[in-house]
Amino acid sequence: MSSIEVVTDLIALPAMRPGSNQVDWDDVTVTAIALGLAPLLYWRLEQRRVELPPLALAKLSVTHQAHAKRNSDIARQLAELLAAFERQQIEVLVLKGALLAATVYPDPALRPMNDIDLLFRPEDLPRVRPVLEGLGYWGKHKSADQGPGISKHLSTYRRQGQRGSTPNPYLSPAADRMVEPHGSLAESWFGLNVDITPGVWERAVPIRLYDQPAFRLGTTDMLLHLAVHAAFHVIMGAPVFVQLYDIGRVIEAWIEEVDWAQLVQLARQAKAQPFVYAGLYWAQSLYRIRMPEPPLAQLRANCQPNLTDYIQNFDARRLIARTQQPPLNTLQQRLQRGLSDRREAARWAGSLGAKWQIWQTALAFYKTDTMALVKQKFVSH
User: Fold this and answer.
1) Per-residue pLDDT tens for 4-13?
2) Nearest alpha carbon to residue 114 among 155, 67, 150
3) What is the distance between the alpha carbons of residues 51 and 45, in angstroms, rounded to a whole number?
4) Contact 212, 150 (CB under 8 A)
5) Which of 160, 95, 157 is nearest to 130 (CA)?
6) Cα separation of 18 and 78, whole Å?
7) Any idea of the CA torsion for 65, 110, 213, 163, to the nearest 10 degrees?
8) 154-185: string of b/e by CB count within 10 Å (b at 16+)?
9) What does pTM read for this prediction?
């Protein structure tokens, strides 16, 4: 077995227990750390009392402690944010890790986080910026037409002096995390667009998080969001193993709240069936998550056969190859990645017109991040 297969088997639901002498624990530990799965692996091995070589155990233990410290800091940061928005009577819906670490994971330290994603009603977005600036955050703003066309959030906020020093989000040092105010749950990548936002606020669930008022997505909406988000991570070549594990945790914790018929219906309304199927299928196959077959069959039936085959051919090793891509250091690498990204996005498009919409983004070269980098270098010289 490869190191990634050992990791996913060990943290799966339920976990397996391979023979200790069959595992290269050093390689497994390094893989788990790089993928953000080290805290989960450490927790599972402790649960099952698996004896590790001292060096591997030390690496996992230190990583677990680091994430515990960082997530505790994030909890305080989020509580401060929620309190500030409450004072201004701005409703906040907490997304992804910032919510899940505190609600569906047995220990908040088990869910690594790199930023705080918050959803606001579109009409409240103009009031968000002054609140963040009042807390000492400064914003970085980007047009939806720039780069790959991400539109769910056009601004990111960070406190002065708080910067990570590594491109791997799971290895960044402790610091205040970036805040991303979302106006929608739309996923966009080089002209490939899926928006599951309609109706989510009407179905949102009021909660208290870190003793502050907030909202979370309804459980069916949350599962829909996590599946689509995970599929887009794969399309974009971004880390996905933690995101797929989130799906399992939500199903395990809130299975009775999931309306599977509604999930299929919402996926159809958003024309998101391939993305939802992919996210659920990969989560199930990687982590042995128990979910009913009929909804998966309905979603699969609405996928093009060649795309279904493509989704089902992804195993742990193919997912790691797709989502752990090297950094771009040269103009040639950027151009090649741009073509590769568009090719991957076009694979998921549902029609020839949608495929053309993706490829025509290559004609607007002046809007790309690569061109912005070229201009920056030209000006500096």
Assistant:
1) 999 999 999 8
2) 67
3) 8
4) no
5) 157
6) 39
7) 60
8) bbbbbbeebebeeeebbbbeebbbbbbbbbbb
9) 0.91
